[in-house]
Amino acid sequence: MAKKKNVIRREWTAADIKELKAHSKARTPVTKLAKMTKRTEGALRQKALGLGIGLGHQR
Questions:
Q1: Number of neighbouring beta carbons within 10 Å of residue 46
Q2: Confidence of residue 14 (pLDDT cuts 50, 70, 90)
Q3: 41-51 and 30-37 are packed helices; what angle lies between their axes, rounded to 10 degrees?
Q4: Given this model, what pLDDT does residue 20 score?
Q5: What's the pLDDT score for residue 56?
Q6: Which of 18, 17, 43 is nearest to 30 (CA)?
Q7: How much is the pTM?
Q8: Chain-centre distance of CA 2, in angstroms?
Q9: What is the DSSP string of the chain?
């Protein structure tokens, strides 16, 4: 049977949101941002979508 991975959830602080907006403006790649913030790409994309901001490159 597969081992279940523990999920660690962290709340988004005002500083986290400010940083996300700054990186959105700078067009930082999502993979790089995920490593810096220690959050998944999906979590970053979902938060950006909720805030109504773009993330990464725009096609």
A1: 13
A2: very high
A3: 100
A4: 95
A5: 77
A6: 43
A7: 0.81
A8: 27
A9: -PPPPPP---PPPHHHHHHHHHHHHHT--HHHHHHHHT--HHHHHHHHHHHT---S---
